[in-house]
Amino acid sequence: MEFFKAVPLGGILTYVVSLVIGSQGSRGGFLSIYRAELFEYELWWSWPLFFAGSALAWGIMMLQR
Fold first, then answer.
1. How far apart are CA 17 and CA 9, in angstroms?
2. For the whole model, what pTM was predicted?
3. Fewest CB within a 10 Å sphere: which of 9, 10, 14, 57?
4. 57 to each of 3, 6, 14, 15, 37, how far by Cα in Å?
5. How far apart are the C-alpha atoms of 49 and 17, rounded to whole Å?
């Protein structure tokens, strides 16, 4: 159950960090931040950061259990 709670938190973390780094013109090295187009909206995204952020949120929730 904690995993399903951690996924939105990982998404929020990814969006905020990618927005800050990507809007400055950087790719973030290993993070490989790119501009994604979703319907008519553009957003910055990084899959490695999403997985790491979700794993971090999941680990913190498991520790609090």
1. 12
2. 0.87
3. 9
4. 8, 5, 12, 15, 26
5. 9
At position 39, the amino acid (one-letter code) is F
In a 3-state reduction of DSSP, which class is residue 49?
helix
**39 CB-contact burial (10 Å; exposed 0-12 / middle 13-18 / buried 19+):** exposed
Q: Rounded to an integer, what distance in angstroms lies between the CA atom of residue 65 and that of residue 60? A: 9
Mean pLDDT of the 4-19 span: 94
What is the pLDDT of the chain when averaged over all its residues?
91
Average pLDDT over residues 23-51: 89
Residue with tokens 């399903």: 4
